[in-house]
Amino acid sequence: MTHALDVVNLTKSFGATRVLQEVSLEVAEGEFFVLLGPSGCGKTTLLRIIAGLEPMSRGDVSIRGQRVTDTPAEDRDIAMVFQDYALYPHMTARQNLEFGLKRRRMPKAEIQARVSRAAQTLGIDQLLDRKPRQLSGGQQQRVALGRAIVRQPKLFLMDEPLSNLDAQVRAAMRFELKRLQRDLGVATVYVTHDQVEAMTLGDRMAVINAGRIEQIGAPLDVYAKPANLFVGRFLGNPSLNVFPGSIERKSTTTVVCTPIGNFASGSNGTLASATEKVDVGVRPENLRVTDRELPGVPPLDVLLVEPLGAELLVYARRETVDVVLRVPVDTLPLDAKKVWIRSAGCHLHLFDPQTGQALAHFTAVEERES
Predict the structure, then answer these.
(1) Closest C-alpha to 364, from 299, 300, 298, 270
(2) Hey, is 229 helix, strand or coil?
């Protein structure tokens, strides 16, 4: 099967510093693929190598089955959208859209048709005679997207194109960008450090850390089953709660013991690979809590409650262990002083304390007497 993009064993070094290490990935035709990771992890370098703007140290890049490892950027038939828009300030929006097509000596009628279609698609047909300084940030980004669209490339590459926009405009542009990409059906590789963008835009994503791909998958799958502790902590806001834990295997169930309570698995087989000592991760929204006392369950002291409209963020502590909870607004009163964790229904992730690799993911059940 031919993919829109294949990257195989790509390595990049700057002198003695290796910034990408044996990176391999595939992007299907029409797929929106996100490269997600913290600043400095190598994601922009990877995008620039795919575009032909940066040489690689080792590896191969193919576009639609054609090896382009040694092909100049201008011959790769890709279109790139940058973080800073990169519009020519002395040209109108129309002239910015036309520029690349004129360089390719495309017939005038075809240029006009492509520019008109792109402008209508992006809702900027009334702005074509304005220069960039006369446009808002969102309008400038639409022009930058239009300049990529008129190329009708084999592949779109986007390097944090929404990061300079304010939050409200950014949210609107996310919707427009996803709709546009689906309508055009062109494979897109999108770089971001913003997990919200990655989760909402991507059909699949690669989480990158220190030049290595930690996990590739559909955003909700990666969120629900992180491959390791880095991925678990990087995705989610507030971040994953992590506690030291131990495993107690009984005749009918296995119990994970933590400083905030004990959590029983419905099947011994679920935790078969878990070691005796584990790191236990649980997302703030995956803890079930109540402000009513539960017999035999020690409480957590509430430090702060932050109302977020439909939800509450609750910061709590048991002895020296801090916990963040995210609960529906009608779960607790704003002046709650203590909360109790209902173990059944809490979804947990177990990690090897030495390697950080995931061992199991499970939803706790009521503990039965054995």
Answers:
(1) 270
(2) helix
CA–CA–CA angle 110, 112, 118 (5° rounding): 100
Give 87-122 as a DSSP string. Answer: --TTS-HHHHHHHHHHHTT--HHHHHHHHHHHHHHH
Q: What does the alpha-carbon distance between residue 101 and residue 85 come to, in Å, rounded to a whole number?
A: 18
What does the DSSP 8-state code read for residue 38? -
CB 244 within 8 A of CB 277: yes
Q: In what order do the strands lie in the sheet with 78-81?
A: 78-81, 155-159, 188-192, 32-36, 204-209, 212-217
Helix (H, G, I), strand (E, B) or coil at 46: helix
Task: Report the pLDDT averaged over residues 139-150.
Answer: 90
Convert the pLDDT of each residue in 321-339 to its tens digit: 999 999 999 999 999 999 9
Q: How far apart are CA 363 and CA 288, in angstroms?
A: 11
219-276 per-position pLDDT tens digit: 999 999 999 999 999 999 999 999 999 998 877 788 899 999 999 987 666 666 666 8
Helix (H) or strand (E) holding 212: strand 212-217
C-alpha closest to that of 43 among 205, 279, 246: 205
Token pair belonging to 194: 């913003």
Q: What is the pTM of this model?
A: 0.91
